[in-house]
Design brief:
The complex is a heterodimer of chains A (255) and B (313). With 255 residues, chain A is mainly alpha-helical. In chain A, 71% of the residues lie in helices and 0% in strands. Classes of the chains: A mainly alpha (255), B alpha/beta (313).
């Protein structure tokens, strides 16, 4: 537990002192302004909640897929991975702590979008089911962090991960219904959406924003957590295999 | 029990371009409390050996043990026992300060909470970074980063220390302080294995030195014993302008060679240690007023055994 707490403190310090590690949070206000301006222009500010949901998932996703997924690659590049692997603390503990924390930083995107809607567009996005929203946000962070463990492990062999990230980033958002509702996707693509944690997270967040009583919230929460846990378990397995391979190949540190 | 032991250790690197035998049939043993040096040219296999012993690289042949634990099969037992310092100015989170860095690594090594602060302060003082403890590493010079690496490697209070080029980037005074630190660590009973190119450093701090080349151990001896591999007896260096004196000396019994050194001095190499007295008397009688006796330095041993390759790897 001490190692996890120390890793969390270290990650917070890194984030607070390196603008690159929180870039999605800095970009999100611009994206929110554009999205809300379009809604305002078309007289549909009643859909501001959807923009809020998209802002949340985009920032959690980008923090996880971009920042979190680069953790192993950066540890290799900076020759820190060898030193970490040689400590008594399993590296997977360090990695999971960092990815979950990085994903949690993405919650700031939710706050940013809410404040922009309120301060710039004069729209108060009401959260009708605050308890469900709190649970949905926590579960989204866990799922995002768990998924980032997997992607970080998968990207660990690459010298530069950015191309892979750019290639995989978009499909996640499209299939998860973040950018457009899943019902707008081609029918043959729609069966893939339940496999993306964004789908269930979006459903939960939208349910928490809607005045109607939530439908199937427990099932959706279960699916969200199951997908996050599944990705994390797979990530742990892949990371162990990757570390074994890197130790075997002598490539834990990049020269 | 040996602190470090290897049996037929081998390591082959395979890439698309080439296959490299980095270590081959390395069998050695270093006792607890011993300071040992690995000497060899670039690419000799020194770092490979240290990385295998540190559990971050798997051997392709043989076995290695740290305090009796297999570095492949018992990594969980080995890792709490070892501290490692890899050379260079990477390996640190440059956004953190030195104090934060040590506190972080202390937690990873499960150093007792009440010990962390005291040990961090003590180590930062020990490596001369106390005044920079709360400055971010991004503002450090290369030598300062290397000192921090050293402190980081010591934070776990490990019984066995692997130091790979620990003084690289340090200025001469810092390197001298490092030697003092190694002697203190030895006095505390720690086992230290260090790789270095600095012959003076190895000579000053190492109980034994292993010469490695092309992945093979060529010799493991004390620096003094290694010196005897080059010359069994002391040599005499003298300063005298008359080249005829060298010619006359070569006629004396017990002298193997008289050679002109860089800087103008002559060196007499003997075949018989008993001849030293008569040679000294001869030199004084010939008017030589500046002379000294010496053993071959480790650098001479290195060049003698490894060979002078210049910049070739």
């Amino acid at each position: 537990m001490r190692a996890i707490m120390a890793t969390a403190r270290m990650q917070i310090r890194l984030a607070s002192r390196s603008i690159e590690s929180v870039m999605p949070l800095l970009v999100m206000p611009l994206q929110s302004v554009v999205a809300l301006a379009i809604l305002a222009h078309s007289g549909r500010l009643d859909l501001a909640g959807y923009a809020l949901c998209a802002a949340l998932l985009l920032t959690v996703g980008q923090m996880g897929l971009f920042i979190g997924s680069e953790i192993v690659a950066h540890d290799r590049r900076d020759q820190i991975l060898e030193l970490l692997v040689a400590t008594p603390t399993p590296y997977i503990n360090v990695l999971a702590t960092r990815t979950i924390l990085v994903s949690s930083f993405g919650l700031a995107g939710f706050v940013e979008a809410w404040l922009i809607a309120r301060l710039i567009f004069g729209v108060t996005i009401e959260i009708h089911h605050s308890g469900l929203m709190a649970i949905a946000l926590a579960a989204t962070v866990l799922a995002g962090g768990g998924t980032a463990v997997l992607t970080s492990a998968l990207f660990s062999l690459a010298r530069t991960t950015r191309t892979l990230q750019n290639a995989t980033n978009g499909p996640f958002y499209v299939l998860g219904g973040v950018l457009v509702p899943v019902s707008f996707l081609p029918v043959w693509l729609q069966p893939l959406s339940p496999l993306i944690f964004f789908t269930w997270s979006a459903n939960l967040v939208r349910s928490a924003l809607a005045p109607e009583p939530p439908q199937d919230a427990a099932f959706q929460l279960g699916m969200l957590l199951a997908l996050g846990a599944g990705a994390a378990l797979l990530g742990v397995h892949v990371m162990r295999r990757m570390l074994d391979k890197l130790r075997h190949d002598g490539r834990l540190g990049l020269t | 029990m040996s602190a470090v032991r290897t049996e037929g250790l081998g390591r082959v690197y395979v890439t698309a371009e080439r296959t490299t035998q980095a270590l081959s049939d390395v069998t050695l043993s270093f006792a607890e409390g011993e300071v040992s040096g690995l000497l060899g040219p670039n690419g000799a296999g020194k770092t490979t050996l240290v990385k295998i012993l540190s559990t971050v690289l798997l051997p392709t042949a043989g076995r290695a043990f740290v305090l009796g634990h297999d570095v492949v099969g018992e990594t969980a037992k080995v890792r709490p026992l070892i501290g490692i310092v890899f050379g260079g100015d990477r390996g640190l989170h440059w956004q953190l300060t030195a104090r934060e860095t040590l506190e972080y690594w202390a937690a990873l090594y499960d150093v007792p909470v009440r010990e962390v602060s005291r040990r961090s302060v003590s180590l930062l003082e020990r490596v001369g970074l106390a005044a920079w403890a709360d400055t971010r590493i991004e503002n450090y010079s290369r030598g300062m980063k290397q000192r921090l690496h050293l402190a980081r490697g010591l934070i776990s209070d490990a019984r066995v220390l692997f130091l790979d080029e620990p003084t690289i980037g340090m200025d001469p005074l810092a390197a001298r302080d490092f030697r003092g630190l190694v002697k203190e660590l030895k006095a505390e009973g720690r086992t230290i294995l260090l790789t270095t190119h600095d012959m003076a450093e190895a000579e000053a701090v190492c109980d034994r030195v292993a010469l490695i080349d092309h992945g093979r151990v060529l010799a493991i001896e004390t620096p003094a014993s290694l010196a005897q591999m080059v010359s069994a007896y002391e040599r005499i260096d003298y300063d005298h302008g008359d080249p005829g004196l060298a010619v006359a000396l070569r006629q004396l019994p017990g002298i193997a060679a008289v050679t002109l050194q860089d800087g103008g001095a002559h060196r007499i190499t003997m075949t018989d240690g008993a001849a030293i007295q008569s040679i000294l008397q001869f030199l004084v009688g010939a008017g030589v007023t500046s002379l000294r006796t010496s053993r071959p330095s480790l650098e001479e041993v290195y060049v003698h055994i490894i060979g002078d390759r210049g910049l070739k790897v």
